[in-house]
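Reviewer comment 2.1 asked that we show a complete input and output for one of the modelled complexes. We chose the 3QA case, as it is the one discussed in the main text.
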Amino acid sequence: MTKIAIMGAMEEEIEPLLAHFDNVNIVEFANNKYYEVSYKGVEIVIAYSKIGKVFASLTAATMIEKFECDTLLFSGVAGGINPKLKIGDLIIADKLCQHDLDITAFGHPNGFVPGGSVFVETSEKLRTIAKDVAKENELNVIEGTIATGDQFVHSSERKDFIESTFKADALEMEGASVAVVCDSLNVPFFVLRAISDSADGGADIDFDEFLKSSAINSANYMIKIVDKL
Ligand SMILES: Nc1ncnc2c(CN3C[C@H](CCSCCOCCO)[C@@H](O)C3)c[nH]c12
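Response of the prediction step:
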């Protein structure tokens, strides 16, 4: 029996998801709250991890190991890199990397440590379902590379480094850590983000203005995807 984990990083990213469900059971664990719902006969666990790779790894591992979820979906916002991505636009990750993981001093490429890989690929099956849903709903969605790091990127210099080093289309602070956890635990996962800013000088202003509306864009699309699982 499938049990689905739906994750965000910030409360604003899961609020629009929780709004679709009633009879929510709250489980408190490891300084966080996990919201259990039943939706059309499917058990779902929803949580926001809090910001950054460490919190996201803890929540992803908890949803799999403690709550026994066998599919993990991430919904949230991101900084846009690909100029085709405007604020509010949707991106599905085909692969993710960690732009701030750096042992280049030893000759390794950016984003690589021994035993790991620069990129982790998401579930092709889940991406196909998502793209079918986008087509059915005439949603304009880009599929691309998402770079993750423990920093809010708000400079063209850092944005350009991430783009040139990883050919990334968008950036955020949690996806690649969720990818490593799910890949290591053999759980299919899917990362969906809506653009809230352009990760350059004005990113903090745009982020504050568009966080809520972009989070809703992502959540509304995510619910349609869940309906197809
Ligand atoms: N340009 C950018 N750089 C990196 N990540 C992102 C993302 C994706 N999410 C949003 C959130 C930003 C963390 S700071 C939020 C401010 O907190 C406000 C409370 O004080 C974190 O969970 C990553 C959108 N634009 C980004």
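The two ends are 12 Å apart (CA to CA). We note this here for comparison with the apo prediction described in Section 3.2.
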